[in-house]
Amino acid sequence: MTERPLVAIYADESCLGNGKDGDNPGAAGALLEFRQPDGTVVRRDLWTSEPATTNNRMALRSVIDSFAALGRKGTHFRVQFTSDSRYLVDGMTDWVHGWSRKGWTRSGGPIENLALWFDALEAARPHAVSWRWVRGHNGHAQNEYANHLATRAAARQDRSDGWIPSGFDAWLATPAGRKASAHLDALPDNTSFRAARPLPAVPVGRP
140: which DSSP letter? Predict the structure, then answer.
């Protein structure tokens, strides 16, 4: 059996005024990296936005939109998905399994953003995914660039409508990019990649 293609996705979210009263615009940004057979690294960008949202909602949107665009041609991938959202990474590696065993309930009350969790599970479940957390605003080049995409989209309220050619190299030439360039992540390889346990199925009749 042919091994699934291996890619890396770096995602970040932004919400302008997160937690404040009223409608707070936000966005999610993502950088896709993969290596061609000749060794060339290819990068693509994606971003989406909402006029009234939260950081947690946009973290989930980063998964939904990234994987929806990745799987448009029906190909299943191995994906190292990196985010600085503990809400997202802890949710995908731990919480969703407990919620599933308990019939999609939790002891602390209703599950926040349950419909979006279901959308994220449906988008990511066909793929083999390693969920990876990094500390935000800590000089990590790809995470800083994803943050750049997210904050720009939050301000502009626009979207890329899928993966488009990346502006990462041009961003590296900016002051923010030069500062972060010393902490450029290497692509995962076949020996280092370890997928997390498979995600639970979404129930029939989901909201």
Answer: -
